[in-house]
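so i finally got all the pieces together for this one. its two components total, 1174 residues if u count the protein bits. some of the lines might not be protein, just check the labels. i wanna see the whole assembly predicted at once instead of chain by chain like last time, that was a mess tbh
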Amino acid sequence: MSRLSKKSPSVCTDMPLDNTDICSKLHLLKQILTSCFGPTGRLKQVHNNIGGHVVTTSASSVLLSSVSSSQPFINLIKTSILNHVSRFSDCGLFAAILCLSLIEQIKKSALKESVAIRVNNYLLALCTSYLQREDCGCRVKLDFCSTQNLITLARSVISSKPACVLTEPETFHISKLAVQAFLLTVPCSSPGIVSFGRIVTVPVEGHSVLSSEVLPGLLVEMPDGLSEEDKLLNPLSVVLFSASLAGDISELGDGVIEAHPDVDTDSQILGQLLELGRQVINDEVKLFMCQKVIHPVLQQYLRSHGVIVVERLGIALMEPLTQLTGAQPVATLHTTIPPKTYGKVRDLCIKHFGSKTMLHLFPLGESAICTMILCHRNQTMLNELKVVCQTAEHVLRLTLREPFALVGGGCTEINLAAYVRHKSKSEVPETASVLMCSQTEYLLGVELFCCALESAARALEHDGGSSLIDLTHAHRWMLPADAIKETMEESLGFCGCGLVQSSPSKKWIYLSTKYSDFCPSSVFRDTRVQPRVLDSFTAKLSALQVAVETANLALDVKYIIQDMN
Amino acid sequence: MPPLGHLHMEHVLQAVGVLEAVILRSFGPEGGQVLFTRDTGQVLLSRSGTRILTALHLEHPFARMVVECVWKHSSATGDGSKTFILLLASLLRLIHAAASKGSNVSHSYSSTKAAEAATARHLADKLLAFGLKELDELIATGVVPYGGCISWEDFTVEAQTSSLTNNLCVQKLLRSFFHTRCGYTHCDFSSHLTCELLSHWNFKNQLPSFSLQLVSDYFPALHTPVSGFPVRSSRLIEGQVIHRDFATPPLKTDHQPVKAVVLTGSLQPTLLSTGDVLELGYRGRMKEERSILHFSSWMESSLQGVIAKLQTLGVCVLLSAVKQSAAVLALATQAEMCLVECVSEDELSLFSQLSGTTPIWDCSMIESEHVATLAFCRPIQLGAHRYKKHTSITIKPCSLIICAPGEGQIEQYACALQDAIRMLLRTWEPMLAAATTTSKSTLQSHKGASLHTDSLTEQTPYRSIAIQPIQKPGCVLSAGGLFELLLHYALLQHGHSCSVSPDLNIDASVSQLLANALLSVPQKIYSHSPKFPNDSHPFSLGDKLSKVSELDLGLESVSCKYQLLLAVLQCVASLLKVDAVLPTHTALHTQSRRLARTSWEDTEDEGEG
């Protein structure tokens, strides 16, 4: 009874978007995320008040999960974005910036929330159908015959995370490795159900990034008592145990076991283990691996018969190992090991990476397992590099489902905005009546949506330059802050994604100025001109949808109830 | 709260008024979402009245009583919790006005109040009596003719040809339901999805309510929440999803059919159960059969025997409710069987229901009747999790994948879907409010027994308690306050006809009161739209009807509305029976305990005493 306490009543907030505190928090969040966006984004150091670990990052996944707010409204947006990132790994900042600017734009205008939601919904459908179209001006079909586009895609991901601190050649090297590793995990000739292989990452600290490499097969911890001179017959027979071989008593149930002092149970079990060892040696197994611990006597026995023993593999390596060797894990100790559970390894060799020495297992046939060794100068950068490589792998894998990419560098957003502006101008009365609003409301909604898209593109610029749009293809161009008006054409060079080159016939205007709507013409594909920046199609499309849906949801919230218990 | 509360109408009105103010935020076509955080920090979204009210953690005894009533009502019909509060508030206001007018004789303050309370109580009782007796017939004559009727064929036949125009009635009904529960954005999408789901779960030779009940009962096992995707990625997939990954490598080949067995216990035999003692070393002498090795090898060999038995039966999929040992995993892998561990009870019970097999506890007793035949069995990647999915060969089940950017939203959609099915069930099977509790208990017993029900064709017990239906099953009406308007006029007419005959003239005032209270609902719905005729001066019925049909807000169920009215009347009656709140103090805390309990019986005692 003494622990009985009264439940405190909930705290309620009416009309959260009219609340100045919430609005200023939203604005702050938007500013933080905007300043992180893109290759020239600024890094953020996150550290808590009790002197914990300091994180340096510009990635939305790290940033959003470490920033906590007492305001459920902020958390609502935060979790939406984080969930998107956990599924697609990419475009988290884009989604967050788009969502927040959409909310801010609509809040600033006099547009009714319910109308804005309907208009946003309609325009989102317009955007997604445009992006799926053949003649979409910002979509590039990926050609799997050449690795160039894939490398560009990987590089866009890697270069957008400045916390990795990579030089230009290093970025290129890592991009190449990411694509190489990705290609190795795609099985070439397996009929029936295709299952992807796996990239096992081994981080090595203190080495140059350029010494990172991708190896087919797997690396395991170097076992004791193996010298480089040992020559083994190839291929090697492998046995893989998933049960502990430490000599512990197997589980018989919940009852009590009473051992008489005369009975030496340990030696009986050890005898059984050695029996197992004898069978393995008779079956000419050369590599003996166990997920858990192996009894030292058994280890010694096996080694003395020329068997390489690897213990404590851990659960994470078990699945790749079964895939690599074709062995089936064994967990029975009393019955003879069925011959079909043995696997094979073509060869093994010893590899040195800095302080680490590891045993490299080569697959017998074709195998979709590979190891990526990532090197970087210090721990923080290495951690970020690991995250970035996983993102790149995920993004590359997504291309197998939808073999497209979207042009990067802000061109997609600008192009989309131009298209929406143009498309929505036709059939205004009909659309407005379907959306149950007046024509002015509808046009205002369209303008707000496009402005939000453009502000996401403008967020890429951090050095005081200005963004321009060309009036033929509707791509984004960057004008450095110190450029002179007269030489504008030269200083522009290529557009944000590198697909369009500046020419005297082109007209540009500043993004902030109003322009009369036009239909963006798709870029004539010259095969010599390849885009320099590509974004994942699947991830960006989903990010767009998540951003608009989350904004709609936030606009629809009329009341907040906070349980204070 | 006053230290010793003689309760007056004002207090009740005040409490309900506060609730009404909260509910109005999410009521009607312009209403929005309510965001709330649980004490666990979880963020939830809702437009459901019940959800919002329970989240408030109210202290006021009256408010708690009302919330309890709303909760009871909505768990039966799945709908109408917001209208409940609005109707309740407007009824109480009108009763208060009528009571204070009736007892206008000048007395001392307290006696006036007492007289007022007595009149109000009297009125509320009469309202309830009237509602139970007359309302049914009034609705049948005054409302039902204006409505349509959904038929079960709407679901089944047309959804298969996937023409969305034909099952428009059900679509519209669901559409307006989702509009009130999840907002405008995805109401079309959700109603399509629900229709599709229900059309897949249609059984031949079965009443529609059977499949509705089945989907409603097994909804937790039938849907998979996937966060991080846009809502529009929600879809139906063929087969049942088991929300666990394979513990052993999944089947390599895609050969069909696949044979499966459900296990509820460990496959490995237990040698020692709790309390048993195994003595090693018999009388100091070492005997071969008393060594520990003997026992562990016996265990392994018997396990091998079980696996071999399963192999002879052709089983290659094992679904286990518990975690299996490493030896089981290894042996199953070697026997090319795939194993799924820790499958939830709901899923296994649905599996048994669909496949018509029984789970095994003791593995030595495996017979062919335990073996289910599946059309396929494969892993499926949904978001971050890899699950197993399969389908049975006889029935074509399908599961629902609910996607949304955040977990709060997914939960909202899942709740709305479940309530939508409940609402459809009530629409289809109108029943008396009194029968609600009985049916609920039988439902539970049905669910528990389903593990052992052999086939779907068997008549399940809850079907037997069908009460003589008052209205035709599946009666629907245009949404947006049409029901309230029609009933308003029907009540006025009824009152008029009653007042002609002198002995029944009390009835007239009651029906007049109810009629006026009903008007508050359409008033609130159109409070944002200036086009709607204001009800301060009378308009013709046709005028308003044309307005309602013009806005086209979809359809709503007549039987749900009827039950709602009865529930509100009951709530009013019981609220007004309470005359005092006695705050008591426990020894440890100065916390007030409420004497006015929330259940029906207690409040009645209170009123008499």
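Chain B touches chain A through 82 residues (CB under 8 Å).
Chain B has 21 helices and 19 strands.
anyway lmk what u think
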